[in-house]
Write a structure and sequence with these properties.
The protein is an alpha/beta fold. The chain has helices at residues 40-45, 54-62, 98-107, 118-126; strands at residues 4-12, 16-18, 49-53, 73-76, 91-94, 112-116, 132-138, 146-147, 158-166, 170-177. The protein is globular.
């Protein structure tokens, strides 16, 4: 069974996924009068489940909205002991090495995964477990914050498979891992 770990994320022009205070309000700084989802719907149609870290889970859960995910969400955490009651059948806590976690998720029949959250993406990249990355670049320089990428033990080669421009301002590139 082929598995596929994908990233779909936005960064500032200088490569940050959150500002110095962890804020992401700047993501909405570009007018979007046509209310485009910028490919998110098509992307999520290709996945079976999401994998995110505790911080990303807590951030999303803290938004004043209904739970936004229709597919199962696996949360990597050694600290959380349980998920809020209303999410019991939607969110599942997992822990262990990434290889162990992926084996557990694959055993549940989820092979096309959306990997989300800065530290989680960095961990997957360190172990060369990302197959594609879609980065939507918002033309703002934050001057600091939480970077998408961190140091890696070796160079990883990717190839740009698609580039799009939304609202004549936002650039989205998809890169496929060359192995």
């Amino acid at each position: 069974m082929k598995t596929n770990n994908k990233v779909f994320i936005a960064t500032s022009l200088d490569g940050y996924i959150a500002d110095k205070n962890g804020g992401i309000e700047w993501l909405h700084a570009i007018p979007n009068p046509e209310n485009s989802d910028m490919g998110y719907g098509n992307f999520t149609a290709q996945i079976d489940a999401l994998v995110m870290g505790r911080t990303t889970f807590e951030t999303v859960y803290g938004f004043d909205i209904d739970w936004p995910y229709k597919k199962p969400v696996y949360v990597l955490s050694n600290k959380l002991k349980e998920v809020p009651g209303e999410l019991k059948d939607k969110v599942f806590l997992v822990k262990g090495t990434l290889t162990e976690v992926l084996a557990q998720i694959h055993k549940n029949g989820h092979n096309n995964l959306y990997i989300d959250g800065g530290k989680t993406i960095q961990s997957f990249l360190k172990e060369d477990l990302i197959d594609s990355i879609t980065i939507t670049t918002i033309p703002k320089l934050l001057g600091g914050g939480f970077p998408l990428f961190a140091e890696l033990p070796k160079m990883l080669d990717f190839e740009c498979s698609e580039s799009k421009v939304y609202s004549n301002k936002v650039v989205q590139n998809t890169f496929i891992r060359k192995r």
